[in-house]
Amino acid sequence: MVDIAKRRFFTRKKIDTSQVKLPWVNNLQQFTDLCTRCGKCEEACETRIIQKGDGGYPSVDFTIDECTFCYKCAEICPEPIFNSADTEPWSAKAGISDTCLANNNVECRSCGDSCETMAITFKLRAGGVALPQLELADCNGCGACVSTCPTSSISVSNV
């Protein structure tokens, strides 16, 4: 059993709870207690976004690709870590930083083109390029917009 508070004490490093771990895993303490770091979820991931993270625990890397919510990671896991497939996978949402090309008057719509839920739209403005508008209610946190952004201006984190 890993006590996160003790781990943080010895490493002097804060545990980043905003980082997206895995879909359908809401309880970080239960996750660290029960996950054996066997790697089966990494092998089962159809987009290969599940990678070994901090302490060897699996985490999601959206710079590789997006989460398709296939539920294969949960199905293959031998431990009772995951919630059922009919629940919300996570509370993660995308965020766009000021380094976005559109904020610097450069036309780019790669994030909007990759957003299946159309949570990212573009608002026209006079004398400049259209700016991205993120509708958080429509964002499912899949991360499709992250890997397509040429300036790494988009991140997905728990809200």
UniProtKB/TrEMBL annotation:
Q: Which domain of life is it from?
A: Bacteria
Annotated compartments: Cytoplasm
Recorded GO CC terms: cytoplasm
Task: Give any Pfam family that matches.
Answer: Fer4_9
> A Gene Ontology MF term for this entry?
metal ion binding
Q: Where are the transmembrane segments?
A: none
Q: Does the keyword Cell cycle apply?
A: no
The 4Fe-4S ferredoxin-type domain is annotated at: 26-55, 56-87, 130-159
Q: Which residues bind [4Fe-4S] cluster 1?
A: C35, C38, C41, C45
Q: Which cofactors does this protein require?
A: [4Fe-4S] cluster
Q: Which InterPro entries match?
A: 4Fe4S_Fe-S-bd, 4Fe4S_Fe_S_CS, Fe-S_Ferredoxin, NapF
> For [4Fe-4S] cluster 3, which residues are the binding ones?
C139, C142, C145, C149
Indicate the principal place this protein occupies in or around the cell. cytoplasm
Keyword terms of this UniProt record? 4Fe-4S, Cytoplasm, Iron, Iron-sulfur, Metal-binding, Repeat
Positions that bind [4Fe-4S] cluster 2: C67, C70, C73, C77
Query: Main role?
Result: Could be involved in the maturation of NapA, the catalytic subunit of the periplasmic nitrate reductase, before its export into the periplasm.
Instruction: Give the family this protein belongs to, as stated in its UniProt record.
Output: Belongs to the NapF family.
* Subunit composition and interactions: Interacts with the cytoplasmic NapA precursor.
This chain belongs to the protein called Ferredoxin-type protein NapF
- UniProt lists the gene as napF
